[in-house]
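Retry 2 of 3 after timeout on previous attempt. Resubmitting structure tokens to design endpoint.
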């Protein structure tokens, strides 16, 4: 056969193959048009029976077990910060964290001391004046009593005198007695006046002494030491905002030289021991008890694991979210970190692993095989080519599995919701 014949025969075979392929494709297209698009395959898993360690995983933020806010002393007017340690500084008990300018308080102390000294001098003078007045009154009283006694002796001689002289003696006795009575009243008035004057000076001295003590206490409060060993967290100074940047307010921390209003918190001392406050799901509550050991990892310290212990668990559940928007019942729990590692910082996110009870011979399913419908836990059990909803009871949960009741071992259940319309099909239906 010639070369031209061979080429012609090859072309006929290629044309025939193309016609057959087109016919097959058209046939399949016609069948798909009649049957409609194929439904995607639903992934399934079988219920297994086995043993499992109940591990609870939760997340919380580190916070100090004990903290104290150091606030500006309660004095009139504002205060100026003289020295302030940086945030993150570790302090020992008694070391100075923040110091304020005591100049105004020292000036008040000097004034109060001057007033106290003047009150002491006036009190001494008042006591001396009262003593002099008492001596003068005592002498006048002796003289008045002598005059009365002399007048009485003169009256006793009236029988031997004329009526005129006798009358004079009688009048002299009456006058002496009147002067004595008046002097006795004056002496009482002098004593009361002197005591009142002395009491006034005592009150003024007590007031001046109180002002001195207050000024000394104010000066002492200008230096604020750490009440215990811990780390310092300097507070934001909202009175000195740094303006706006990218739509947010820039708020600097307090620093030396800033003016602080009385009572404003300047720095917080955080104790080295840390704890976590978390909210546990109701299903995890039964697997945790106070004193149980936990393992804690901190996002800011990769690769490090810290031992911990369950400190407290609330006995009553509460709903989460604002106004109870989250219907899940949760329990507040506190975990204490069993270390004082200096790398731990308040506010860092920490992950907690709690090893609970070891369960034997239980039915296990992946968590994604369980769905919530109208507040009920259901799974979709395969029955032939269909999936039927079936109520189950979840007794415990782990990070990837659930322990169920109400199913038989080996039952095949769906891993995705077969009642949910695929997105592609939903788009085609539109």
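Retry 2 succeeded. Sequence:
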């Amino acid at each position: 056969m010639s070369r031209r014949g061979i080429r012609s025969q090859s072309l006929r075979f290629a044309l025939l193959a193309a016609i057959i392929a087109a016919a097959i494709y058209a046939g399949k297209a016609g069948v798909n048009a009649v049957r409609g698009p194929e439904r995607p395959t639903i992934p399934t898993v079988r219920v297994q029976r086995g043993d499992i360690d109940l591990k609870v995983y939760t997340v919380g933020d580190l916070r100090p077990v004990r903290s104290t806010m150091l606030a500006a002393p309660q004095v009139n007017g504002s205060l100026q910060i003289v020295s302030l340690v940086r945030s993150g500084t570790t302090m020992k008990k008694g070391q100075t964290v923040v110091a304020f300018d005591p100049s105004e308080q020292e000036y008040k102390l000097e004034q109060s001391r001057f007033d106290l000294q003047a009150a002491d001098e006036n009190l001494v003078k008042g006591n001396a004046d009262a003593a002099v007045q008492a001596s003068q009154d005592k002498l006048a009283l002796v003289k008045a009593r002598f005059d009365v006694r002399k007048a009485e002796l003169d009256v006793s001689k009236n029988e031997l005198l004329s009526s005129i002289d006798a009358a004079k003696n009688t009048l002299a006795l009456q006058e002496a007695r009147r002067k004595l009575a008046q002097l006795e009243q004056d002496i009482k008035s002098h004593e009361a006046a002197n005591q009142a004057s002395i009491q006034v000076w005592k009150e003024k001295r007590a007031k001046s002494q109180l002002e001195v003590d207050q000024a000394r206490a104010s000066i002492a409060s200008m230096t604020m030491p750490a009440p215990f060993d811990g780390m310092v967290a300097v507070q934001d100074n909202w009175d000195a905002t740094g303006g706006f940047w990218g739509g947010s307010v820039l708020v600097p921390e307090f620093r030396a030289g800033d003016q602080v209003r009385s009572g404003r918190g300047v720095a917080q001392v955080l104790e080295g021991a840390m704890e976590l406050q978390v909210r546990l799901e109701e299903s995890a509550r039964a697997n945790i008890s106070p004193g149980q050991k936990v393992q804690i990892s901190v996002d800011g310290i990769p690769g490090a694991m810290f031992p911990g212990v369950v400190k407290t668990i609330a006995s009553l559940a509460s709903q989460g979210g604002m106004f109870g928007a989250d219907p899940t019942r949760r329990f507040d729990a506190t975990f204490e970190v069993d270390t004082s590692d200096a790398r731990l910082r308040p506010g860092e996110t920490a992950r907690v692993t709690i090893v609970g009870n070891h369960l034997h011979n239980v039915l296990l399913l992946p968590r994604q095989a369980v769905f919530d419908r109208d507040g009920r836990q259901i799974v979709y059990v395969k029955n032939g080519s269909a999936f039927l909803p079936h109520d189950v009871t979840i007794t415990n949960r782990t990070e990837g599995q659930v322990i169920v009741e109400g199913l038989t071992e080996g039952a095949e259940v769906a891993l995705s919701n077969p009642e949910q319309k695929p997105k592609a099909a939903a788009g085609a239906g539109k």
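Attempt log closed. The longest helix spans residues 163-221.
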